[in-house]
């Protein structure tokens, strides 16, 4: 759900900075090796690209770690780690769910979630520290934020926090799930969108600035630590999304108002960003709407490692030198994965990633009028008109993910 991310673009006048993941390869040594490889290969681009993959493979064989160990280790130098997800993928949400005990052991006591309203924070805190689990309350809290976000796997994160807190001594601080959004008013939306209608929907301000303010106030200003689970664009940190503009210098303008951009400007090296393996949107004119990251290089490399789940660095690392020509490369010449995120988590090939589980009973007859009035992003899909149509929409969300992932071209050998 990304219409709320529409923001005023602005070209960054100086590069953003932040800490690098652990054990970076020396850049000058790496560039020297690549230069020698290109010269030795007669500057053949295909062979040069293969040499980059060879260096990346050697590094992964030495340094790739289990995904949980990799993410937790980032908190040695970072206070907030942004985990960029493609929404509603079962393996991603199971990974985050199972990570809670390791996070807590490392001094990370907060999981910050995009899908949840700040207005319900007290109720959520009570839910995850209650003597007994209350599934109905969990459903109501998710409905309050997004009337169509039925996925059971997101509510399972609430329950996982509750179960973990039941294991703690009575005097230990609980593990806390923190909502970073607020309740939007979709009844105010008009198509086409205007500043006035968007102000009516997002009545507490632009959403990623709101989220950044909340994380700053609740985590960073209190010297806390948090894992932030959010959609991939919101996790953009050094990367700024480009768009073609006829009246802009270089014919490109840039949006640097994403959540990660805000947090990095304010906090520098206290923030790190990690991308979950996912399809990338294809550049304009491509045959398929979604493609493999880095031209399939990630999956080729992981296949050679037995497709084992792994976490590894991008920025300052050999893997980060892999070029990418997806839509993310727009307005970014010579774009590489290291320009995109600090690190990467691979759980399975795209063909084996599956959607989360939709709860078709998420909305019942007592809730349907509210659900129809507050149907989110109504310009993305025609809003349903009754309970049966609403449930069909929920079921269709799973099928949309299956179709999108099935259409991603297979990894070239």
Top keywords for this entry?
disordered N terminus, seven-stranded mixed sheet, 13 helices, alpha/beta, 13% strand, two-stranded antiparallel sheet, 413 residues
Structure report:
The protein is an alpha/beta fold and about 425 residues long. The chain contains 13 helices and eleven strands. The strands form three sheets. It has a seven-stranded mixed β-sheet. It has a two-stranded antiparallel sheet with strand order 5-6. Helix 3 crosses helix 4. The longest helix is centred in the C-terminal third of the chain and has 20 residues. It is globular, with a radius of gyration of 22 Å. The relative contact order is 0.18. The N terminus is likely disordered.
Summarize the structure.
The protein has 413 residues and is an alpha/beta fold. The protein has helices at residues 27-40, 45-63, 67-74, 90-105, 121-128, 135-145, 152-166, 195-201, 207-218, 259-267, 297-304, 368-373, 387-406; strands at residues 80-85, 110-117, 176-181, 226-231, 241-244, 252-255, 271-276, 280-281, 290-291, 310-313, 343-346. It starts with 26 loop residues before the first helix and ends in a 7-residue tail after the last helix.
How much is the average pLDDT? 90
Taking the alpha carbons of the first and last residues, their distance comes to 34 Å
Largest sheet strand order: 3-2-4-1-7-11-10
Q: Rg to the nearest angstrom?
A: 22 Å
The run of helices and strands is HHHEHEHHHEHHEEEHEEEHEEHH
Q: Which runs of at least 5 residues are low in confidence (pLDDT < 50)?
A: 1-43
Helix and strand topology:
Layout: H1 27-40, H2 45-63, H3 67-74, E1 80-85, H4 90-105, E2 110-117, H5 121-128, H6 135-145, H7 152-166, E3 176-181, H8 195-201, H9 207-218, E4 226-231, E5 241-244, E6 252-255, H10 259-267, E7 271-276, E8 280-281, E9 290-291, H11 297-304, E10 310-313, E11 343-346, H12 368-373, H13 387-406
Parallel strand pairs: 1-4, 1-7, 2-3, 2-4, 7-11
Antiparallel strand pairs: 5-6, 8-9, 10-11
């Amino acid at each position: 759900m990304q219409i709320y991310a529409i923001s005023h673009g602005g070209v960054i006048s100086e590069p953003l900075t932040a800490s690098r993941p652990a054990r970076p390869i020396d850049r000058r040594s790496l560039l020297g090796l690549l230069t020698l490889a290109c010269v030795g290969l007669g500057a053949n681009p295909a062979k040069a690209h293969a040499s980059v993959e060879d260096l990346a493979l050697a590094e992964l064989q030495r340094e790739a770690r289990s995904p949980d160990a990799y993410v937790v280790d980032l908190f040695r130098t970072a206070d907030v780690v942004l985990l960029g997800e493609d929404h509603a993928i079962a393996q991603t949400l199971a990974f985050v769910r199972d990570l809670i005990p390791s996070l807590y052991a490392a001094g990370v006591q907060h999981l910050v979630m995009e899908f949840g309203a700040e207005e319900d924070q007290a109720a959520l805190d009570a839910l995850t520290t209650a003597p007994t689990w209350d599934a109905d309350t969990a459903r109501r809290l998710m409905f309050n934020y997004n009337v169509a976000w039925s996925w059971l796997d997101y509510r399972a994160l609430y329950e996982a926090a509750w179960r973990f807190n039941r294991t703690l001594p009575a005097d230990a601080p609980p593990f806390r799930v923190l909502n970073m959004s607020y309740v939007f008013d979709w009844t105010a939306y008009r198509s086409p969108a205007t500043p006035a209608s968007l102000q009516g929907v997002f009545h507490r301000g632009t959403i990623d600035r709101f989220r950044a303010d909340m994380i700053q106030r609740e985590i960073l200003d209190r010297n806390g630590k948090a894992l932030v689970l959010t959609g991939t664009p919101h996790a953009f940190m050094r990367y700024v999304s480009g768009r073609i503009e006829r009246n802009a210098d270089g014919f490109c303008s840039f949006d640097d108002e994403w959540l990660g951009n805000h947090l990095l400007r304010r906090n520098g090296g206290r923030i790190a960003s990690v991308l979950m393996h996912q399809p990338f949107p294809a550049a304009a004119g491509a045959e398929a709407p979604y493609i493999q990251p880095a031209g399939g290089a990630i999956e080729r490399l992981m296949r050679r490692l037995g497709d084992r789940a792994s976490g590894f660095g991008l920025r300052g690392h050999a893997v980060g030198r892999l070029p990418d020509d997806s839509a993310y490369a727009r307005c970014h010449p010579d774009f590489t994965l290291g320009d995109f995120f600090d690190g990467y988590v691979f759980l399975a090939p795209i063909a084996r990633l599956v959607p989360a589980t939709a709860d078709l009973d998420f909305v019942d007859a007592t809730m349907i009028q509210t659900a129809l009035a507050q149907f989110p992003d109504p310009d993305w899909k025609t809003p349903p008109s009754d309970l049966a149509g609403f449930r069909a929409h929920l079921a269709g969300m799973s099928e949309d993910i299956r179709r999108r992932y099935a259409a991603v071209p297979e990894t070239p050998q």
